[in-house]
Amino acid sequence: MGFTSPSYKMAKLKYNGGGDWYANRTALPNLIEFCNKNLSTNFYVAEDVVDVGSEELYNYSFIYMTGHGNVVFSDAEALNLRRYLIGGGFLHIDDNYGLDKFIRPQMKKVFPELDFVELPPNHKIYHQKFKFPGGLPKIHEHDNKRPQGFALIYKGRVVCYYTYECDLGNGWEDFGTYPSDTQETRLKALRMGANLIQYALTN
């Protein structure tokens, strides 16, 4: 059997405003490894970083965005992200605690006509290779609130999936990064992440 070059890359979204877009440093490499092993995907083993206003955005099927703080999209950046998502791209926004009040108005600039809607537990994003009959799992505790998975749906397709009160990316990081998170919790997070990848690549 010959060597097959990687077919896909994942990227973390770099944005302005001062928020820590670079958080969860080991998350995507671990998710990539998990997906290549369990979904037979062929991702390049390292993550890329892509600026929200860059034409390079279009080179990725899956973009991951995280952070705790402020987010600012210029009009040009918002339009670029909109075109990327309408054209078949997929954005996963992962609230790392504190992102919510910043990201909602910025995504409204991207899709003024759309509102985030909570996906029900029977949505197929929770029923890919791994089954989550209760919907989005809870990974990391902050405010004793239930985890919620919101989506922006454009012409029937989920173009943006937003994890709130979950901290999914924390669960993808190296085991031991968060001592209170068990291996079972980490596996749950990686499986949910794999579902997102499978969904993004097939819808």
UniProtKB/TrEMBL annotation:
Residues 10-201 form the DUF4159 domain. InterPro entries: DUF4159. It comes from the Bacteria. This is DUF4159 domain-containing protein.
